[in-house]
Design brief:
Helix content is 38%, strand content 14%. It has 18 helices and 18 strands. It folds into 2 domains: 2-164 and 344-428, D-Maltodextrin-Binding Protein, domain 2; 170-337 and 459-528, Periplasmic binding protein-like II (D-Maltodextrin-Binding Protein, domain 2, 3-Layer(aba) Sandwich), CATH 3.40.190.10. It is globular, with a radius of gyration of 26 Å. With 529 residues, it is of the alpha/beta class. The strands form 6 sheets. A 4-stranded mixed β-sheet has the order 4-3-5-14, with helices on one face. A 4-stranded mixed β-sheet has the order 8-11-7-12. Strands 13-6-17 form a 3-stranded mixed β-sheet. The protein has helices at residues 2-16, 62-70, 81-94, 108-117, 125-131, 133-139, 144-148, 175-180, 189-201, 259-273, 286-294, 359-369, 372-380, 405-410, 442-450, 466-492, 497-510, 513-528; strands spanning 28-29, 32-33, 46-52, 73-79, 100-102, 160-163, 170-174, 214-218, 245-248, 251-254, 298-303, 320-322, 343-346, 350-352, 387-391, 394-397, 424-425, 430-432.
Length: 529
């Protein structure tokens, strides 16, 4: 293992040597060199960093590499999430908190209150502009700088932006089952019901048991049934930061109270009544959902991708493909939730506190993390061990079939770095397979098919003040719990959507729907300014 570590360090140092410049050729701002590597002279600066992670500092193989590159030492305070959150509360209360706080420990309210109002977290935009070209490049991606700028005009956190599909969770249909029951790919809701009936009745999986098929199921952690209301003309997805909302004419509109949403509930309740929907749809956990999928029991299932719930065939072809966007009898144009424009971002992953003596060094340290080969190795594994660089952002996986279990774990994704911390993987970067192929996966194909039906993404906003942030959290929790509960009752037949609809609308208003919509649109208006 020592030999492998030496190979890793040598490979990464060689790859990063372009940034290493002699001290005589560079200018300093205080203790820090303003460009190139290392960032400071050896032993010149150490900062403290509290972050949540389930691993151990000594197992993170990129940490000694980053220290070697920068000469910056870090006193890591690394704990599992619950412990780290408890320690953060104690440290903030005592006033003896660390220089940097990162991971999943901070939320919107923390940055608004402790940063914008109380000054615990410091503005960073001037340091980015002066010292951090990689971070600045991220901020210049359309929509990112706007999303990270608080109502006071400052940026208090280091951006974490990653490429992602245009559509995250969607229904996938078993095309082998379609062939087995002699059906074509459905194009509307009536045809879908007909296909699901055939799945139920015709031993679609061919195992000799005509009663084990589950025509429709879904990932319990990402079910978001309201997304499928798009077949009837409204996006009422419960996922994301604005559950059940969509952009309509430049404003946020709550869609789980629209007539089209009710039509979808009626349709789906009918499917459930006809035994076309998994009876455990609202009660199963992720393990149960995956287990049934691995047994080839699903005709259609909602998920990120087929690999989440189904094993490919021996020839590595996938039995599942994406279900197209369907039309409905009401004749309205279908719509589907757009997750974004190819990138997503997390806005509260790293904040620098007013305790930091040299925040400019910390900003430069993260800017070095954002350098191509550092971020790529954090994401895909070490150069020379897991991947090789072919130049121009193209990498190829190395054959690791002879790895021992110990080596697989040591060089695994979770041991590279604290993965909740920012890195920068451009969408243009390519990772080839061992044989040099770049496969076009089902997610890419689904994006291309779904794009004509995708709505406008909801901009990420900050609440205009602490009071709004706190109130929004309460309202959203109450309304989400109520709506999700009613969806489960109506679909499963425990209650009748037609009998309860007017009372449901009244209860939404009593729970503060109008106030919640006003708060969200007020934040949106602030963003527009």
């Amino acid at each position: 293992m020592r030999k492998l570590l030496l190979v890793l360090l040598a490979a990464i140092m060689l790859a990063s040597s372009v940034g290493m410049v002699s001290a005589a050729e560079r200018t300093k701002d205080g203790i820090m060199y303003t460009e190139g590597l290392p960032i400071v002279d050896e032993g010149a600066y150490t900062f403290t960093f509290l972050v949540d992670d389930s691993g151990l500092v000594e197992d993170k193989y990129m940490l000694p590499v980053l220290e070697e590159q920068t000469n910056v030492k870090i006193d890591w305070m690394l704990f599992p999430y619950e412990t780290a959150l408890e320690k953060l509360g104690i440290l903030l209360s005592s006033g003896d908190y660390p220089d940097v706080i990162g991971g999943w420990l901070l939320g919107q309210k923390d940055i608004l209150n402790d940063g914008m109002i109380d000054g615990v977290y410091i503005p960073l935009e001037d340091l980015f502009e002066k010292y951090a070209p990689n971070i600045t490049e991220v901020l210049n991606i359309p929509g990112v700088r706007q999303a990270f700028t608080l109502p006071d005009g400052h940026i208090y956190t280091i951006p974490y932006v990653i490429g992602e599909p245009l559509v995250t969770f969607l229904p996938w249909i078993n095309q082998v089952w379609l062939k087995n029951v002699g059906k074509e790919m459905p194009t509307n809701t009536e045809e879908l019901k007909d296909v699901l009936i055939a799945f139920r009745d015709q031993d679609a999986n061919g195992n000799g048991d005509p009663n084990d098929e589950i025509p429709f199921s879904g990932d319990p952690n990402n079910l978001a049934l309201g997304t499928l209301a798009g077949w009837f003309g409204v996006n009422a997805s419960s996922s994301g930061n604005n559950p059940f909302y969509a952009m309509v004419d430049g404003k946020l509109q709550f869609n789980a109270n629209q007539p089209e949403f009710k039509e979808f509930i009626e349709f789906f309740a009918d499917l459930y009544k006809e035994r076309l929907v998994d009876p455990e749809l609202f009660t199963q956990d992720s393990a149960m959902w995956k287990s049934k999928g691995k047994q080839n029991l699903y005709g259609v299932s909602i998920g990120y991708g087929p690999g989440d719930f189904y094993d490919n065939n021996e020839d590595d072809t996938n039995d599942f493909t994406f279900l197209p966007v369907l039309t409905s009898p009401n004749g309205k144009a279908p719509v589907f939730r757009r997750n974004g424009y190819g990138v997503t971002f997390f806005r509260t992953q790293v904040a620098i506190t007013d305790k930091a003596e040299h925040p400019e060094v910390i900003v430069r340290w993260f800017d070095n993390v954002f350098a191509e080969e550092n971020s790529v190795q954090i994401q895909w594994g070490p150069i020379g061990i897991k991947i090789e660089s072919l130049g121009d952002g193209v990498y190829r996986a190395l054959d690791t079939s002879n790895f021992t279990k110990e080596e697989e774990e040591k060089w695994g994704w979770g041991n590279a770095f604290m993965q909740s911390l920012p890195k920068y993987i451009k969408t243009s970067y390519v990772l080839q397979s061992v044989d040099g192929e770049v496969n076009v996966d089902e997610k890419t194909a689904a994006d291309e098919a779904y794009e004509p039906f995708l709505d406008e993404p909801i901009p990420q906003t900050w609440a205009t003040n602490e009071k709004d942030a706190e109130r929004l959290g309460i309202l959203q929790t109450d309304i989400m719990n109520y709506v999700n509960g009613k969806i489960a009752q109506w679909v499963s037949g425990e209650a009748d959507v037609n009998a309860e609809w007017e009372g449901y609308l009244e209860q939404l208003n009593k729970l503060g729907l109008e106030e919640m919509t006003e708060i969200r649109n007020r934040a949106l208006e602030t963003l527009a300014k």
